[in-house]
Amino acid sequence: MPLHRPSNTWRDHYNPLRGLTIARLVAMEDAADRGQFADLQWFYHHMERTDVTVQAAIARRLAFVDSVDWEIRTTEGADPYLAAEQADLLRYCYNRIDNFKEATLSLARAIFRGFAILEKVRAGYGPLVSRLDPIDPWYWLKPDRHGDWRLNPENRSHESTGEHVPPESICVLEAPALNRAISRHFFSKHLSFADWDTALENGANQSIFIMGPPGASEEKEREYQSIAEKIASNGRGYLPNGADVKSFDLAARSQLPYFQRIEYCDQQIVMAATGGILTMLTQSGSGTLAGGAHSEGLLALARSDAARLTEVYQRSLDREWLSAFFPRQPHAAYFTFDIPQQENTSALLEAVGNLSWAGYRVDQAQLEEKTGLKLIPVEQPQ
Hints:
Strand content: 5-15%
Radius of gyration: 32 Å
Number of strands: 10
Shape: flat
Structural class: alpha+beta
Order of helices and strands: HHHEHHHEEEEEEHEHEHHEHH
């Protein structure tokens, strides 16, 4: 039986970005510090869908999930027969999970949201799992920072107790929430957008004041007022002798540093999401040395994030399955994500050439695997 399927959808009619203030944002963060995540996680959900920079940074940070492969390895020095049997079991168990890649991507979002929780949907035979279903983060509570996670099925903002959830029924990844820093710059950025739009609207239309002739009666002043409104609204009209028009150009207001402020916020969002490495994309030399550093930095982040995900699966799945099917036996196999090392093809070929001069040969199959090139021997002239 599934742990939870949302039936109360009142939040679908509530947009937390409407009328957002810094005081409201701080209040949501304070509630999250008390373990009440509903409001803050709902805000994060809308922020991630609204801002292009946030979307792009998250997609870039989590891009490795779509391409990473997993494998089962054995512990060095373990009984080879026991290790082989346990490895076969783990492969079988993981291959039975229908939505493994989707679940992994959802779990990886904890890097931005602070936590992510998957429900183990049992396959009907012992501890085997058929699916790992994500449960949205606004349905969770953690009243005690070091205690267990509890379900908030009605996603109430001020719920403080929730429902007990057996820890063995879920997979949990907790991490420092990058969205906490990103949200401040998101707020400043969109506040700048609103002020900039107002300045552009005001600057596009000059302020016009009509100076009426001296000694005009109240009736004439009302008539002149009507004429002045037509002229100010891009109409046409006649002004009596002695009238004057004064205009003020407010276009300079639109030249205030809104763009610089927005650009700064975007840079801070990217820096928070990717450790600063994506800022190299806009720097000179990004196609050469900086581009190489950027690629290596992304690969380092991918390895770090994959290690976090690996630890969750080892703790929540490997341990349960191996303990159930190999009771009182040491665990000699384990799950891991395989992030391939980035090979420097030029340096590798140079090393092969040096080995050739030294009288050594490199295995063709191994060299093809390392370089990704199909090597065809050249016939030497007789």
